[in-house]
Amino acid sequence: MSTKNLTLIVIAALVIILGWKGCSSYNGLVSNELEVNKAWSNVETNYQRRTDLYSSVVKVIEGSANFEKSTLKDVLEARASATQVKVDINDPASLAKYQAAQGQLQSAFGRLMAVAEAYPDLKTTKAFQDFQTNIEGTENRINTARRDFNDAVNNYNLKVRKFPNNIFASIFGFKAKEYYKADAGSEKNPDINFNIK
Length: 197
Known about the structure:
This protein has 197 residues and is mainly α. The protein contains six helices and no strands. Helix 1 (3-62) packs antiparallel against helix 2 (69-84) and helix 1 (3-62) runs antiparallel to helix 5 (126-161). It is rod-shaped and about 95 Å long.
């Protein structure tokens, strides 16, 4: 066998190996990206469940006579804002905007619930009691979905950044994705003040 033939065989073998590794890397990256997308869909689904629950209890509260309309208006505006944000999980700015809108909605709703405590007739309605039961489970689902999303992003980012996958990821245009971050200020201990007399 001549050196020329041996060189051609070695080059052909390298091309085949690189082609196989490239296909394998590409398929792995696609699978991981689909897992990230699925996990994000679960996050959105759970946020939608929370928004639906908020909407149902807002209707109950709206029907309550003499309820503080300004607090209710804040919730309605925050809900409208949160449902209008379009998210591209490949764009960190849109993900941050979505998180901020959801945080504003939760904050406004928290104020609404605090005000609702002053209305004993409202707290005894079945719809309000059902809401209180369902919202706790929904918040747990949201936390689980966000954690699952971050796990999927972590697995994807590992594939994108590890050698030699990082070479193929760069060639095929796969980029690292942002994690779902904690709400701003959540790292601080809450200031709890019991006014016990």
